[in-house]
Amino acid sequence: MKAAINNSLLKQLPEGRDVDIYDTRLIGFALRVRKSGRHSYRVNYGRGKWATIGRLSDIKPAEAREQAQKILGDAVKGIDVGAARKQARASTLRDYLANIYGPWVKTHRKSGAATLSRLEACFDTDLGGKRLHEITPWLVEKWRSRRVKKGRAPATINRDITTLKASLNKAVEWGIIEANPIAKVKPAKLDRKGIVRYLSDDEEKRLREALAARDAKARIERENANHWRAKRGYPTMPVFERYSDHLTPMVLLALNTGMRRGELFALKWSNVDLERGALAIQGDGAKSGQTRHIPLNSEALDVLKHCPQNHTLVLPGKGGAKLTTIKKSWGALVESAKVENFRFHDLRHTFASKLVMRGVDLNTVRELLGHGDLTMTLRYAHLAPEHKAAAVEKLRQVEV
Fold first, then answer.
1. pTM over 0.70
2. Core-most of 57, 119, 284, 299, by most CB within 10 Å?
């Protein structure tokens, strides 16, 4: 049977019999209809050579046709897709990650290298030797139980399982396996709101004082070192001006803009407009992948005006290189300020929490933080209790 394989055709598929429908637009592309209900897209890429693209329920006709075109193009180049897929099916998760998914994710995802490392570190011992179709929900649940016993946080475990699912979804898309074997594995239920850790006024004061003391100490040490070098005829080092390094401006910008640590690491002068008092977070450097614009208040603007502009990055490491961590300096800072149980990311929570407590509406906070929807922003809603108080106040009976 011949017909154009499209959405209209799917609404009138023959029932109760097996039939192969050959596309009239692309020679070799076909839809295998089975009375069992397991319909699938296929492509004939050579004499007697067929490749299954995917199930009807998992892929749209236009996407299936695109994959068929690619397979036919590879066949013209001498690539035997069927043989490649058989080899891939026989490979273990370890091989799949190293040779198939790994190269793809590192090329097409900005955090691809980190994703691959996470998968290998989390699953190699328990699942690395299993073939893809041998990975079952039960094996993943056993893995989850072991991780829980080791003290891993439920949110971390959920994130790891989601990452594994995504890698296997690609294997389905590429025709290596017919279906994701762990598609039905559910994440552990989490308290999405939780307790938001943010700086109290006293803690913020201590943190700012510790930053100032740190810069002052570095400035004195540099002056003493230069005095010693000058007496001996050695060239002196540049004198520190307001900031001794990147830490103080980074912390102050986080408090005043809500920028993530990675966004601060990647911030370039080309994305800062001091005249208009705004900066842009480019989509390729944002967690959401979407560009957003942040207005600068007077303190943030003052901080940036006192940062040297001799490198591409606003807050570079040594020699202008991009920073990868501030763990050591940050740890020493919070210890000096006597601020306990506080991560750098909590500066972002502080920014959002104080906006809400000052009456800024949640949607504006969402836009400033770069959240895709209000789900994540709602964790700060409890900090504006007047709205809930006004709601329950309506229950009071009107006195006669």
1. no
2. 119
